[in-house]
Amino acid sequence: MSEQTRRVTFSATPQGEGTPGASPAATADIRETSRPTVRTAASAAAAPGDIGRRIAARREELGLTREDAAVRAGTAAGYLQYLEEQSTARPGTSVLIRLADALDTSVAALHGGEADLPPGLGQAADHSELIELGPEDCLARLSTHGVGRIATAADGGLVILPVNYSVIDGTIAFRTAPGSTIAAAVGSNIAFQVDHVDEALSQGWSVLVQGSVRAVTAPDVRRRLDALAHSRPWAGCEGRDLWLRVEPDRISGRRIAVR
Fold first, then answer.
1. Which pick of 103, 116, 149, 255 has the fewest CB atoms within 10 Å?
2. What pLDDT digit, counting tens, does each position of 236-246 carry?
């Protein structure tokens, strides 16, 4: 993170087979689902529907419509919809290879074989540059929600903990359990960090927010946060009914660009 920080006003707005007329590509792809497929350890461990969810998530990450992705993969948009929405869909190896290539990822990633590995496993690019981000660019990358990390003092040292956050009414809002390590940070200054790594291009960015944490106690404000939050805590909602807000004082960021 940059040592240079800027004091800012934080603002963001939360945001079938045999069918008449089926294309030859769609028919071929649908037939392939009935063939024996190569079963790796990763694919055997994946629950039904995991591949479809990963295909959809990667497609949306790239900003592609189903039609765009289908054209790239040389298949039909209807078949791609079937893969994404049907939990029993099990595409063959050749289909996955084409989809992985179209989505700039790997077959292993679509199977979930890289789910337990940290990001940034690829090699550094030959010509890269570290660029400072301005406040507006930082805010745009931070909004509207995602997974970030809170750094705070605890037990005589520092701890860094992940949270599912949303940007609501100009603050970073998230839920935690009363009595948790993060809840103990109320009233103190903390650091909040969020980033993104593009494995395919060996580039990425990170944003650092410094500010104070306060608890939300007003019932109407709590109801508003419940209604506007983009995601519930991935670790489960039980016991995590304390809303906290980070009010930013300073924000900075950097990105790695490949030339």
1. 116
2. 777 788 999 99
